[in-house]
Amino acid sequence: MVKTKFKEVSNSHKLKTYIAIPRIFSKIKGGYVMVSSELMNEYKKLMEKSKEIIIFDSIKSLLEWDMQTKMPPRGILLRSQQLGLVSQIEHKMITNPEIGRLIESIMKHPDYDSLNEQQKRNVYLVKKFYDEQTKLPERLVVETAKQEAIANEAWKKGKAAKDFSVFKPELEKLVELKKEAAEILMKVKETPTPYDALIDIFEPKMTSEMITKIFNELKTGLVSILEKCVSSPKQPDVSILKRKIPIEVQRKISKELAKFIGYDIESEKAGGRIDETEHPFTTGYYYDVRITTHYYEDNWASSVFSVLHEGGHALYDQNLNPEWIYQPIGSPCSAGIHESQSRFIENIVGRSREFWLYFLPKLNELTNNAFSDVNLDALVHAVNLVKPSKIRVEADEVTYCLHIIIRFEIERDLFADKVSVAELPQVWNEKYKDYLGVKIENDSEGVMQDIHWAAGLFGYFPSYALGNIYSGQLLAKMEKEIPNWKEQLANGNFNSVKQWLTKNVHSYGNLYDPADLIRIVTGEEINVKHYLNYLNEKYSKLYGF
User: What pTM does this model have?
Assistant: First the structure.
């Protein structure tokens, strides 16, 4: 925390100072310090500019939400123009020279050090974003926004047709635009490679070299656990998960899950909603955070875990420090920390025996006793099946990160010009055979299974695996502070877990970079061992090794 001391000066000097430069008090840990009103006026102007940008961005996110949920197919060309114009306006707002003037005025002010930690972090975050965006040509920003909308629609058509060639030309255009941006941002961010500049957008201060080292250690541990699970004679009966449950009933299950985790979608003060899309996602800000899911009549568990996953994201967004709303620090820390919250709720909570001890009776009630013959431990083993598969979002905890490592390596090579867009299906299929031992039959279950590349989210995928690693560290810390959390969960009490996550993660917002936040909360650097220990302990019991 920032510590500021008063300088020892005479009373007459203090009086002259107050007359010459009026001051106000700024709260910091341990007391208050005096800050000149001139400096605070400049700071408030900067925060007003930041607020306008944040609100405008929330409008843009609603257009994107509508595009995925309610927009009719013919609306795509108009929507691409809308998003292009909105991105152009937003870019003008972000790169307004007045923001640059305010940043310089604040940082060069003789009283700059009297700002508290939160204020300095706000200035830092605005400056970082301003420096990056001012270097990106408006033409590039607009073209990229339009192309993302067009590529998104091409991806939907190509996936439905199981044909990458439908998606390929639009993806090629988008990749070229992203490469151009990455080259520019690499110089601004001073990253080793263009791809590192994209990673930094989602996971600040992380590099592909650091991630490669972390993932290599992770991969070794995962493969060891995977081999033990697959070779074990104690295998689950997964036919339980294929029982046909009407989609209307699954919607009721989703509402019950939302109620359990405290994600309000029904009351007069509700700040959330659940809609249906091809690929589940979460979007929103503080008081309006929306999630989506996808229902399969013969795979009811898919929506259960996607609702818990996206619900974890929503809880993070809704429980950020309310005092920091519209400020840069009042935003999530990183995509990886965000994923740590969604994976924590989906897996550590949602796939635990204690959760199903509580929720199985509820499931029976909602499905007219469709699972009355199901043994609790058989269900728990089924939802924790470990088996190499083709689809990331359906992957188990042990193999999930291998899916991410494949995507990370492909992205890294794509932006290093070692792989072309045309080669993506072949490279993808080869890696799935080598890493997971599965054969990809078509492009829909292969290279086009994710929406991320169509949305231009290159550099995002590593955050999923980092989120798992963070969740393991957070779990190890939480268990020391709430040793009976599982007993509470078995009784239907999720509040203690939710409150712990809010206090130790959500409330910090973007006050720290992800690696710093993990160190502050857990007392150590990024450590793969906790996640591997969690997996080993859990799956050794399930598979008897």
Answer: 0.90
